[in-house]
Amino acid sequence: MMVCEYKPGLEGIPAAESSISNVDGQKGILEYRGIRIEELAEKSTFLETAYLLIWGQLPTSEELKEFEHEVRHHRRIKYRIRDMMKCFPESGHPMDALQASAAALGLFYSRRDLHNPVYIRDAVVRLLATIPTMVAAFQLMRKGNDPVRPCDDLDYSANFLYMLSEKEPDPLASRIFDVCLILHAEHTMNASTFSARVTASTLTDPYAVVASAVGTLGGPLHGGANEEVIQMLEEIGSVAKVRPYLEDCLQRKAKIMGFGHRVYKVKDPRATILQDLAQQLFAKFGSDKYYDIAVEMERVVEEKLGHKGIYPNVDFYSGLVYAKLGIPTDLFTPIFAIARVAGWLAHWKEQLAENRIFRPTQVYNGQHEIAYTAIEER
Ligand code: COA
């Protein structure tokens, strides 16, 4: 067998052949199935984009109507899932609640007919439809309230915002939220997608695939960064304190949350779109000091770290948008998961089409031939 050089984090090593998305990190380009993210953000909807990612081409209007109809009518979660969620500690992180609930779906739909297109369609629809309901349900239940039933009259994003607040959301807020979902739906071989593909390669069920990806997304170096961005903006507190705060971080060699990317060496194109959405929201609903702090941070970080290719990533402005929509900080990552489920399912399907179980090797750097020491002699 060919022996390759060990690369921590598998940096630069292809883990799959994929036609789902593409990133050009030098030029700041992101494409889903060949279509630029800017075009999808302007013209598409999240469910249409999910269809594109999962089935490889844009749906016809008939196909889209049918898909939207199926998703709309599968939004309710089983009362036994709700009862299970009621037992979760209210102090627990919503990502942990989501991971457990997504895995629990596999208990109810345990058939594994992985090569049957009807089974695949069912699982895709069920996961896309119920993940937002589970996120909203936990949010209400941890505050001691009953979950809000999904509203069949509202589209995907408006319904999610409605389930969180029991109020019909403003159309601009719903559209902006929907664009956020488009922007987070897929991003090549990131950690959670890799995790999804590894799990898929064992031929387990799609609920286990999504649950393992949700667990991977939760860490602060991946999806969890946007929560930390808001905490950081709160800690900084004013535009005047940005420079001293950043200088202190750099001196301590601390990572600045929401900046830097393994692939992008220019500004993440999703950050540019999100910044524009944040501006639209602030124009309609009133300005916010955190936005001014964020803009100043971007300026100072570029001055200090631009030469290393450190620019804002998707998490930098997404937190600001969600906070302005009134979404609690610890729901930011579950919302990332709502979107990324589309990408994970596309990768699940692609992995199954040409499956080989992942089984990498390792470089053993431990000892050999060590004698067992009796416990009283240690
Ligand atoms: N703040 C300050 N310096 C940073 C930085 C950040 N956010 N991200 C990278 N750097 C610096 C590193 O210190 C390193 O400097 P050095 O060469 O002088 O040691 C250099 O840039 C390369 O960084 P490295 O950690 O090797 O990059 P990576 O590709 O392994 O890491 C991330 C990518 C995303 C993990 C990293 O940028 C990070 O931790 N960012 C903050 C968390 C975040 O926003 N995550 C969301 C990603 S979408």
Number of helices: 16
User: What proportion of the residues is helical, as a percent range?
Assistant: 55-70%
How would you classify the helix and strand content by structural class? mainly alpha
| CATH architecture assignment of the largest domain | Orthogonal Bundle
Largest β-sheet summary: 3 strands, antiparallel
**What is the fourth-level CATH superfamily of the largest domain?**
Citrate Synthase, domain 1
- Amount of beta strand: under 5%
Provide the number of structural domains: 2
Lateral strand order in the biggest sheet: 1-2-3
Order of helices and strands: EEEHHHHHHHHHHHHHHHH
CATH names the topology of the largest domain as Citrate Synthase, domain 1
Q: For the terminal residues, how far apart are their CA atoms?
A: 40 Å
Family: Belongs to the citrate synthase family.
Pfam family, one: Citrate_synt
Protein name: Citrate synthase
Keywords: Transferase, Tricarboxylic acid cycle
Write the layout of secondary structure elements.
Elements: E1 21-24, E2 29-32, E3 35-36, H1 37-43, H2 46-55, H3 61-72, H4 79-86, H5 94-108, H6 117-141, H7 156-165, H8 171-184, H9 191-200, H10 206-217, H11 225-236, H12 242-251, H13 269-285, H14 289-305, H15 314-324, H16 332-353
Antiparallel strand pairs: 1-2, 2-3
Helix pairs in contact: 1-8, 2-8, 2-16, 3-6, 5-6, 5-10, 6-7, 6-16, 7-8, 8-13, 8-15, 8-16, 9-10, 9-16, 10-16, 11-15, 13-15
Bound molecules: coenzyme A.
